[in-house]
Amino acid sequence: MSPYGAKTGSSGRDGTRITHTWESGIYARRHRSGRAPPRTTSRIRWASTIRIPGNFRSSATLKAFGATADLCPMRRRACRGPAGAVSSAAMLLALAACGSDPAPAPLPSPVGEAVQAKVPAEGDRAGAPALNHAPEIHSVRFEPEKPGTGETVRAVVDASDADGDSIFLRYEWTLGDERLDIDVPKLVLTGASRGQRIGLRVTASDGRNENNAVELSSEVRNLPPKLTKLTIEPPDGVLVGVRLVVRPEARDPDGDRVSFRYEWSVNGRPAIADGATLDTSKLSRRDKVRVVVFASDGEDESEGLASPELLVVNAPPHVVSRPGPPGADGVFRYQVKAEDPDGDGQNLQFQLVSPPEGMKIDAATGEITWQPAPGQTGTWSVTVLVNDLEGGAGRQIFEVSAGTATAAPAAVDPDAKPERGDDRQRSRP
């Protein structure tokens, strides 16, 4: 039998079994822990120990259980080890090294037992340790596929090892022409520029063998602007006839210039508007208004940012007339006229606040009459209130003088600052 062939034996006395491997005249032992020698070409299974026969000569070196024996044609050296014994497996290895094929006849042993050598079964050969395989990388991808400035890109690696060994991955990143000194599966793109190249080289190892590296690259993509705030004017509600204006705020991660697009709706239906401004003159009380704003850098557009639903509230009426001079009979007459943006003109009610003595107003029509009494002189401030019965009220303030022989035409007070529904005027009867 070839010195590299496999031989097996058995002994009925000792039930302990171990596995030995042999290659190029060198013997190694496989422990029960399962740790294999670096390489193997054949194996021998044995369970007993024997002493070297006195007439045996060989030129092999045996190693087993800490016992060694050097044999050559010229001399026999006694075995060095426990009780001067070597394993019967070592004995067979020595025979194989000399080119001898042990006969099926029993070999002598110290206790007079017979040891039979035989060729191992196919199942025994199948248990020989296999060569180590390098891990295999099946795929590498970026997540997200195209990250943007300031975002975190992760490397997702699918790898396996045919031997079931642990896999160690090494990551080599580049950003543009710069190699980054990091070995982690993720990269934060702080300060990266749009269009800059992202490179990654991944290598897998099981501690003994290393696979061929896999490389992957991508680009830093453009990021759309991000809307941060919407401001609606006027802030106290939507009034019919008062323009509604939205003022958006946004920032762009790439520092690009930002433009805006507006989508207005009234009661859920698209409304015609002039960009950021909506004309409310055709709206009605209790209408619902909403605007959605989009920001763009010329390449990408942001998601829309919607305003809260804005309710068109009741608008107060306002006085549109001015007082005039008294009549030739000295009586002050003034027909107050008012308008209501919500169309409540038919339901308006009028009243005076702290009028001079004798001045009256018709609550339904708004007509004021005043006949100054004899001795009634001076100037009075007159306030007219107009109520639309829906909670909205407007007012007009004017001055009237008495005790003069001649009346002056009505004039607007140049110092007055009228507010919504508040008109200040002066009259001199």
TrEMBL record:
One of its GO terms (cellular component) is membrane. One of its GO terms (molecular function) is calcium ion binding. Residues 414-429 have a biased composition (Basic and acidic residues). Residues 8-22 have a biased composition (Polar residues). Pfam families: He_PIG (PF05345). It comes from the Bacteria. Residues 404-413 have a biased composition (Low complexity). Residues 1-22, 404-429 are annotated as: Disordered. This is Cadherin repeat domain-containing protein.
